[in-house]
Amino acid sequence: MTIAARLSEIKSSLPSHVTLVAVSKTKPAAAIKEALHAGHLHFGENKVQELNLKAAELSKEIQWHLIGHLQRNKVKQALVHQPLIHSIDSFRLLQEVEKQAQAVGMQAQVLLQVYIAQEETKYGLDEIELKQLLESLSQFKNIQINGLMGMASFTSNELQVAAEFRHLRKVFEETRSSLPTELQNHFQTLSMGMSGDYQIAIQEGSTMVRIGSAIFGSR
Ligand SMILES: *Cc1c(COP(=O)(O)O)cnc(C)c1O
Q: In ligand 1, which atom is closest to the CA atom of 23?
């Protein structure tokens, strides 16, 4: 199957409220063009440099998503093509995003990454850190918090994956209702689900799935 065919098959299986981010990391710009020609505009990359190189070459209409761990010294570069940053995993990182967004006079769009897996290797805020961060949101004038992102454990145990996504959905709902009304309106995105687990994620309330290998082939 071609990239366009796999993309359209997945797209047609998604409920209309779910946004598909086609994760193009490690794949050449030509692969992205195939999806672009099929009318797809949301693409995800996990490295700032790779995102910026591809963005410079490809259509300005693309909405980019930065999904990988972001280091503070790369924030300035990360903002150049105005991606939605899915991977805010510390207060200090958010402070740096604020500083760099203010410097160029933009509103940075971000998701807070919450740690839900039973694994040591995944990045993300724990719930105490999330709570602390939410208490200090009023100082971030140049950031729009659009929601949460999370990754489930890498396991074949679907019940465990479902439970982890369900938990994130609950955190998402609680977080949204704890926000002041003017911030609630922007807080609409729950980014969860990858090639191996997106169907479970959608059942558990995902509004944005990040799918790479099922579209572009294995890496
Ligand atoms: C690579 C990656 C994906 C996509 O993974 P696939 O299994 O190829 O669909 C999704 N989210 C993040 C954070 C990733 O790094």
A: 4
Residue nearest atom 12 of ligand 1, based on CA coordinates: 67
Decide the pairing of beta strands 189-191 and 143-149: parallel
- Write the pLDDT tens digit of every residue in 202-219: 999 999 999 999 999 999
* Ligand 1 pocket residues where CB is under 6 Å: 23, 25, 46, 67-68, 151, 194-196, 210-214
Three-state secondary structure call for residue 50: helix
Structure-token match 């944005």, residue found = 208
Nearest CA to ligand 1 atom 6: 212
Spatial neighbors of 212 by CB under 8 A, at least 6 apart, are 22, 23, 24, 25, 44, 194, 195, 219
36, 58 in Cβ contact below 8 A? Answer: yes
Centre of ligand 1 to C-alpha 78, Å, is 18
How far apart, in whole angstroms, are the C-alpha atoms of residue 202 and residue 15?
8
pTM of the model: 0.97
pLDDT per position as a tens digit, 70-119:
999 999 999 999 999 999 999 999 999 999 999 999 999 999 999 999 88
Compute the C-alpha angle 132/202/154, nearest 5°. Answer: 70
Is the pLDDT at 143 greater than 90? The verdict is: yes
- Average the pLDDT over 19-29 and give the result: 98
